[in-house]
Amino acid sequence: MAQPRISAYLPPDIDPTKAALAFGRRALPKLNEELQSPELLTQQRALMALCDLVHDPEKVYQAIALGFLDSLKTLLVHQDQTIRQKTTEVLSIMALHSTGRDGLIRSGVVSALTGLLDDPVDICRKNTHRIFDVVAKLPQGAGGVLQAGLIPPLVLKLKMELDEIQELILDTLSNCLRVEVSEALAAGAVTVLKEKLSHPSAAIRSKAAWVLLEISSHAEGKIAVCEEEVIPVLVGLLEDTQPEVQVNSAGALMFAIVTPQGRSSAMGAEAIPPLLTLVAEETSKARLNAIKTLTLLAELPEGRKRLLDHRDTFQRCLDDPSEAVQRAAEIAITVIDWKP
Amino acid sequence: PSTLQVKRQRRAQKQVQARKLTQEQIRSGTPEPVEGRQHVYVQTELYLEEISDRVIEVDGECQTDEFLDRPPTPLFIPAKTGKDMATQIEEGELFDFDIEVKPILEVLVGKTVEQALLEVMEEEELAQLWSHQRAFAELRNAEFAELQRLEEQDRRIREEKERRRLEHLEKLRKQKETAEKIAARAFAQRYLADLIPSVFNNLHDSGFFYDPVERDIETEFLPWLMSEVEETLQKNVLGRMMLDSLIRMVVEKRLDEFSHPPPSDQTETPAEEPRAADAAPQVSDGADAADQAVAEEEETDQPVAEE
């Protein structure tokens, strides 16, 4: 009779598309052998079973210790698209665990995945980019992605990929460019990103602004951003409807106008009024970035003159609950009041 | 039994017998049999056993076989047993659907909702983690931007300072150069102030500035004069010498004449006269007055000599 108690056991798993799992410790080695078998159906069924198993971190650890990654690497270049899709799915789930990430970086799966960037199947490419995105969140992962020379192809893909994949690429780029920026600049990333700043999708705009932020935190990035005249576009984005976009573009401006050319270009683009609106809003997330940007602009004489009138806006920021905003407001007031 | 065991058996038996003999000698063994009975050795077992301390050991091994993969369980369809019977159940006889379905539904819905809740919770947790990370990233970016701003400020101040310092150094250097130039010029002026007079003096002393007439007189006239004077004097001397020799000759001749008879006195004196006259015009070729005087003296001398 059926009972209302929820059973502790999982329901019986009789999915015909999955291979049967051996008992206990023998499960993964058997799957490994099945993955290397010449028969297509066996491989597919083994992959389906593996997909389910790999959600468990202990299984991930065991799989990597058994050397699954080598067999998976060979399967990445298989002709059958189901196999490729499932392999990339398995790898992307593995990458969500930290042991998986370590294993992926160490066994050089990242460089093996570069071949899949041009795969005709969308799902494969999406999973590939998902893997890059998650791997790049680690510092060693970002280093691995940089070493595999992935930045130029990624920048190229940014121009022509689907929107979802573009978001993943932008996330990957933002994590990698935090480390080193010269390759991306050589591949013309700033031009591509400038186009993306006017994309209809808000998520892409905010992520593109975030990538520009990371680029301009480096010195050569700042020079490139000033040369490509991105600053007026960013100033335009400050008045965007989405708060995310505002935050990120304010942040990108914050870094880009540290150089004197950036500052003069920002003054020329009339950056002060939108920034002041952002600061005046009590609940704006962009407050911190906007205050910092205005601090930078206040170091110019004409900026200081204009901001002296708005000093009380900064006074009001001192009551903000966030401590960082308070500090930034204090520093801003000090800079505005400074006399040579 | 092997030969070794047989040997051991025999040895053991011998030892036992030897021990028995000795023991029998030392102490009494079993008591004497009662009358009418006898002690007899009897073998109770079928086989002789060797009595020894060492236990016989034999090694044996046992191992399970390597695991074989169990083939997948084939679908078990039990064979049909028993007789087929049919029965008809009317509605409402067995159970009331609505009441009975409740627990099943509860389970179904409960599990679904639970799974859904779990997923939602996971998503929320993930979103929280991302937002936490974003907040941290923002703080970090803000601090980084502050750092870069201060760096930039510092760099500008340092550059400005460096430029000012260089300017100042340049200014000092120029000042020093100008002072040195002035000092050098003053010194040179002073040094060269009496250069010109001294130069002129030196030149004057070394005779570069001369009066041309005076020099001319000095260089040409006077030597010529001196040479002329010398010539005249020489002529004078020559004349005198000539005169002396004349006088001497005359005197010697007069002596000769006065010592000898004077036959040709008149013819010799006119010969002497042209000679003396020759000498006199030769002598008087000099343009000097002294010469003239000497010539006149000689002329006067001649007539004196003639007389």
Automatic annotation (TrEMBL), chain A:
InterPro entries: ARM-like (IPR011989), ARM-type_fold (IPR016024), RSP14 (IPR042856). Transmembrane segments: none annotated. This is RSP14 protein. It comes from Phainopepla nitens.
From TrEMBL, chain B:
It comes from Phainopepla nitens (Phainopepla). Residues 294-307 have a biased composition (Acidic residues). It holds the Pfam family Radial_spoke_3. Belongs to the flagellar radial spoke RSP3 family. Residues 277-293 have a biased composition (Low complexity). Residues 140-189 form a coiled coil. Residues 1-34, 257-307 are annotated as: Disordered. This is RSPH3 protein. It is found in: Cytoplasm, Cytoskeleton, Flagellum axoneme. Its main location: cytoplasm. InterPro entries: Radial_spoke_3 (IPR009290). One of its GO terms (cellular component) is cilium.
